[in-house]
Amino acid sequence: MKQFTQAQVQVLSRERAVFNAAWALARAREKLAELYGWALAGEATSWIAPFLLAREVQEALEEVRALALAFADAPFDESVGAFLEEARLEAARILRDREADQPAAGEEVPF
Questions:
Q1: What pLDDT band is residue 99 in, cutting at 50, 70 and 90?
Q2: Confidence band (pLDDT; 50, 70, 90) for 41?
Q3: How many other CB atoms sit within 10 Å of the CB of residue 49?
Q4: What span, in angstroms and rounded, lies between the C-alpha atoms of 74 and 8?
Q5: How many CB atoms lie within 10 A of CB 35?
Q6: pTM of the model
Q7: What is the DSSP string of 28-92?
Q8: CA 78 to chain centre
């Protein structure tokens, strides 16, 4: 049996899993917004770029699903739903904070 050092083994807490899931949801939302913008503007002249972007969204959502399933308890549906709701709320907070840090339209950005 393989021996692991303490540096190799990390225990993921539920709070950290919710945080990781929230970041994955935030990334997925940004990629979906970019994909939607391409579709509206007709900027995607090739199928490869939208396909790769959609694949990134799928991977992020699969990561969130895997984390939710890993931390599911006895009432399975309720537990997964609660985890996803926590991650969704945290992702909304992350995106709100990120948008608040960006300068308003027309505002000069100092170098």
A1: confident
A2: confident
A3: 14
A4: 30
A5: 18
A6: 0.76
A7: HHHHHHHHHHHHHHT---SSHHHHHHHHHHHHHHHHHHHHHHHT--SSHHHHHHHHHHHHHHHHH
A8: 21
Residues 6+ apart with CB under 8 A from 100: none
Alpha carbon 74 to chain centroid, angstroms: 25
Give the per-residue pLDDT at 73: 83
Res 35 pLDDT > 80: yes
Which amino acid is located at 66 in the chain? A
Mean pLDDT of 28-56: 86
Q: Hey, is 11 helix, strand or coil?
A: coil
Do 63 and 87 meet the contact criterion of CB atoms below 8 Å apart? no
DSSP 13: P
